Amino acid sequence: MQDAAKTIEDIRKAMGSRLAILGHHYQSDEVLAHVDITGDSLELARRIEGLEAEHIVFCGVWFMAESAAILRRKGQKIHIPAPDAACPMADMARPEALNVALENLSASGKKIIPLTYVNSSAEIKAVVGRWGGTVCTSANAKTMLRWARERGDAVLFLPDKHLAVNTATAIGIPEEERHILNPGLIDGEPSLYVSSEEAEGKSLLIWPGYCPIHDEFTIKSLETIRREDPEALVVVHPECPPDVTEAADANGSTSFIINYVKNAPEGSTIYVATEANLVNRLAERHRDEKTVKVLETRVCDDMAKTTTDKLAEQLLSLDKAEPVEVAEEIAKPARKALERMLKACA
Ligand code: 13P
Ligand code: SF4
Fold first, then answer.
1. Hey, which end of the chain has fewer CB within 10 Å, N or C?
2. Ranges of residues in the chain whose predicted pLDDT is under 70
3. Which of 24, 302, 305, 306 gets mutated to test ligand 2 (max ligand atoms within 8 A of its CB)?
């Protein structure tokens, strides 16, 4: 498009408060230059309720727009400039497999509370809501795992095995009480065979999903930093593997990482293990006071699908475009699951 930035700004000006554009921290600088609210998954979910705008445009991945469509007010329209921006981790949990797993695990009379990471489909959130469970983000995983543990005999955490293990370690759930479920194949399709015997004596059952971007950070590169630059600080996202997370100085959501870097002493060097757009932005923002580096360069191709061209195209067709819709029979139980989280973390 000829001048996407100008088109976007002209439309923003013309529409005023009828339009709100939201963007996740992993979006590119070019896109974030045009958003009204930037945040981590929790902040963005929280802001939906208070928005008055008629059109809400979500620069992020599909599950974020779906959550917004579940939490929006009547009459509001949710749009996503890149509807093909999926989250591969969210796709690792299928509602049919979750239902079967929950039925099998509770066959012996045990009360299983499902806790899904917000990086999951609306259908998964609906199953979780129907089973009395809730949602967490990387910013509130500890609070929500405690919440779930108070309400049942065991918790089924999905889909991110690394976030589950890192959170369990942070709140002191012993290793012998955790069990990572085994993926199998049914007719060549990935599935989960889960039996109640498998869950015997376990209070935390863990879905075997992961984020392909964060899963690739290795303990080897962290150990190299420790050897070559022992004074440097290392902060990582809790979607990273447990050995990386445990060896880091701190871990937390994208907003936590932003604050960690901001509060690090002047003159320090900070290595960050998360998506490269955010790390490069922090390096630029703090370049006069501290050195910020990627632990390894990892880019989320799905987050990168939103470009200023796509945002401009979306804004040009707002009145004609099909908004993101979630059928009410799915939205209702999914909303319940999301509202339990928003209430617990108010
Ligand atoms: P947060 O911004 O909530 O930490 O989420 C990270 C992420 O991977 C989003 O897809
Ligand atoms: Fe999904 Fe990972 Fe990309 Fe986040 S960074 S959208 S968790 S694939």
1. C
2. 1-2, 183-196
3. 302
- Using DSSP's 3-state secondary structure scheme, residue 191 falls into strand
pLDDT digits (tens, 9 = 90+) for 61-104: 999 999 999 999 999 999 999 999 999 999 999 998 899 889 88
Which of 3.40.47.10, 3.40.50.10800, 1.10.10.10, 3.40.140.10 would CATH assign to domain 214-294? 3.40.50.10800
Q: Any idea where the domains of the chain sit in the sequence?
A: 4-85+303-325, 90-210, 214-294
Q: Decide if 4-85+303-325 and 90-210 have a common fold.
A: yes
Q: Give the relative orientation of helices 328-344 and 122-130 as an angle to the nearest 10 degrees.
A: 70
List the one residue out of 101, 130, 108 whose CA is nearest residue 207.
Answer: 101
Helix axes 62-71, 41-48, angle to 10 degrees: 30
Question: Which phi-psi region, left, alpha or beta, contains residue 180 (left: φ > 0; alpha: ψ -120 to 50)?
Answer: beta
CATH architecture label of 90-210: 3-Layer(aba) Sandwich (3.40)
- Please give the distance, rounded to the nearest whole angstrom, from the Cα atom of residue 239 to the centre of ligand 2: 9
**Cα-to-centroid distance, 213 and ligand 2 (Å):** 7
Q: Give the tens place of pLDDT for each residue, 288-297.
A: 999 999 999 9
Atom of ligand 2 nearest to the CA of 301: 3
